[in-house]
Amino acid sequence: MLAQRHAAVMLWLAVATAPAMAANADTPPGEYLFRAAGCAGCHTDADSKGTPLAGGRALSTPFGTFYSPNITPDPDTGIGRWSEADFVRALREGISPQGQHYYPAFPYTSYTQLTDADLRALWAYLHSVKPVRQANKPHALPWYLRSRATLRIWKMMFFGPGAYELQHDKPPAWNRGAYLVRAVAHCGECHTPRNLLGGFRQSQQLAGNPHGVDDAKIPNITPDRKTGIGTWTANDLVYYLETGATPDGDFAGDAMAEIIDNSTSQLTGDDRRAIAVYIKSLPAVETERLERARKEKPPKKKEAWE
């Protein structure tokens, strides 16, 4: 019994403390999580040369256009008046400090799986950035979605709050990869198709989404050899997450290129390897083949918040 308990503790430490361990060299844990979660991409209106993290980026979806909010510590237009408990509840339960339900365009459906320690570290980092005064834009939604009262019902149907639970029959690298893919990097938010009500099609996890944000076709990343990435090796996937280069000589384009530049390339090699271990272990799902958006890899931009 003691040996089993020791093994469980060691497995938990291997998964839950990895960001802090990785950050010991030169990156604070909260900043490492911030990069891994890709917060800057959604909360910066780069097309309009917006200020980093001040929000305003439009996310066009089949349910309307959502505008990301200001997440700088500005007290009037950002999250400067939030408490740590407010922040944790927003990401864990999808509820604002005023008690309103968030639309699932905010990926709390994935962030709910973050550990308490990681939520606190991310909160501490966001409170360390420069406050920016910029009012949030209202979402542009059809009339029947403007009332947030319906979100309570949606959450009852499609949302289960709670931190990631370790799979004790899996090795630490698999658990670490599952935690990164499901919770931190929230890959399923783009790569899993949704039903008519916006809930995930659970039987098609990461099998691609023909109706992604900004009308993008998001490819299947399960190990299916015909329509997914089943012909890629684990090393291929690790290299792709670091450089954006595919095994056939192309580069990731559009949103994925941004994610690689700002997020996955910033991870440790062990974390990229853990992601590959997890994704290669998934069941193959054959779907319609959705081609990746490809283009010449742009030069890496200096991050404005550095």
From TrEMBL:
Residues 287-306 are annotated as: Disordered. Keywords: Cell membrane, Heme, Iron, Membrane, Metal-binding, Repeat, Signal. GO terms for cellular component: plasma membrane. GO terms for molecular function: electron transfer activity; heme binding; iron ion binding; oxidoreductase activity, acting on CH-OH group of donors. Residues 1-22 form the signal peptide. Coiled coil: none annotated. PROSITE patterns: CYTC (PS51007). Pfam families: Cytochrom_C (PF00034). Residues 25-130, 172-283 form the Cytochrome c domain. It is found in: Cell membrane. This is Cytochrome C. It comes from Sulfuricaulis limicola.
